[in-house]
Amino acid sequence: MINSSSPSLSIAFNYILLNGSDSLFPKAHKAEAHENVQHGPFNTLFSFDVDSCVYVFQKIVKAGDKDLDGQLDFEEFVHYLRDHEKKLRLVFKSLDKKNDGRIDSQEIMQSLRDLGVHISEEQAEKILKSMDKNGTMTIDWNEWRDYHLLHPADNIPEIILYWKHSTIFDVGESLMVPDEFTAEEKKTGMWWRHLVAGGGAGAVSRTCTAPLDRLKVLMQVHASRSNTMGIAGGFAQMIREGGVRSLWRGNGINVLKIAPESAIKFMAYEQIKRLIGSNQETLGILERLVAGSLAGAIAQSSIYPMEVLKTRLALGRTGQYSGIMDCAKHIFKKEGLTAFYKGYIPNVLGIIPYAGIDLAVYETLKNWWLQRFATDSADPGVFVLLACGTMSSTCGQLASYPLALVRTRMQAQASQEGSPQMTMTGLFRHIVRTEGAIGLYRGLTPNFMKVIPAVSISYVVYENLKITLGVQSR
């Protein structure tokens, strides 16, 4: 393993100091670095042309610069190499089909064949020769590591494969950053099967947790200091007003919007990635957040009238609307077209804290697990994946909840007789003034109560639908 006292590591860092551009690395010590790098075990790694060197150095700085000062100090370099070596070992293990600690041409051919790429044995041997130092026509771990160590890789395919997040977990809010798909999944068409499986899992999950979701909406709109509404009291009130069936009021439109929203968000995400000049192999966390937030905003803009319909149906009395279309007609006739976009601004603003915190927490937990526990595989297992998904979703919801509550209140304003029509900021001030800060978190309890069952149900259904659709796990 790499350690900060390694002479070879110091030589490698000195080489980067020597060859990196002044805008990326400190000018100091470059003369000293020149002497240190003339001889040493890393000198064979740096047979790049100048443009390749600059590109590689820029990627290393981007991946390793933790304090975002535009420079890479020795400790940051050590941290980057430790993390990168961990990922390289996972890839080496997945390529080593015979588990003998060496990779030969047949194993390279088989691994590429699994990705849908067919090469000849001569081409495989040519790949081997580029990394093989001792002429054995096989690559051991040291040769593999030395060749790839200074080539940043943000998304190892095996990690992408096992750590899907937003496709699998559905907690009723579609504000997560979309998942990445490997080149193999895109080439074989597995990506759309993943999306279909995720959509089906979301439909089942939302249906199973719909009573809690409707209770959350009622508490967001009607609960106050003078009108306290508990979990048991809320359920009793709904059943008394419309029977057990009323617990699922508004669920139909909530399920229907999954398909268009997922499809639009995925397509927008892929297009935005191309516009910012990135692909799935090099997309960093910040780029993913930007692309995912923009894609989420586009998708939400497209299906937002369905969000308004869901809220109005959930708040509706028994017999008030005969169905989704009847509700839409009533809103359009009474309030006009703009009513379908009430609460749009807090909804879009809520994407950033939700997606950002959800992604940051999930990536932090994922990287912590990979560094601490991943040895032969990046597969975290069911319970780790569920725990990470639950924690990241909960944190994301907690951060964006006040905006979600204001959105729901704005969507419901016209349906409440005598209720003043307030702006987003006016509603925020009104809630804080009359109910205190706690008023911004009405309905939080049923919202959190549904997270664990929603995540668990969506995962189980997703895994079963994957089998039905013929999605390969590896």
Automatic annotation (TrEMBL):
The chain positions of domain EF-hand read 83-118, 119-154
Q: Where in the cell is it found?
A: Mitochondrion inner membrane
Provide the organism lineage as a comma list. Eukaryota, Metazoa, Chordata, Craniata, Vertebrata
Q: Which domain of life is it from?
A: Eukaryota
Membrane topology per record: Multi-pass membrane protein
List keywords of the entry alphabetically: Calcium, Membrane, Metal-binding, Mitochondrion, Mitochondrion inner membrane, Repeat, Transmembrane, Transmembrane helix, Transport
The species is: Sinocyclocheilus grahami (Dianchi golden-line fish)
Q: Name one GO molecular function term.
A: calcium ion binding
- Its recorded name reads Calcium-binding mitochondrial carrier protein SCaMC-2-B
Identify its protein family: Belongs to the mitochondrial carrier (TC 2.A.29) family.
Q: Which InterPro entries does the UniProt record give?
A: EF-hand-dom_pair, EF_hand_dom, GDC-like, MCP, MCP_dom_sf, MCP_transmembrane
Q: What is its main location?
A: mitochondrion
Gene3D superfamilies under this entry?
A: EF-hand, Mitochondrial carrier domain
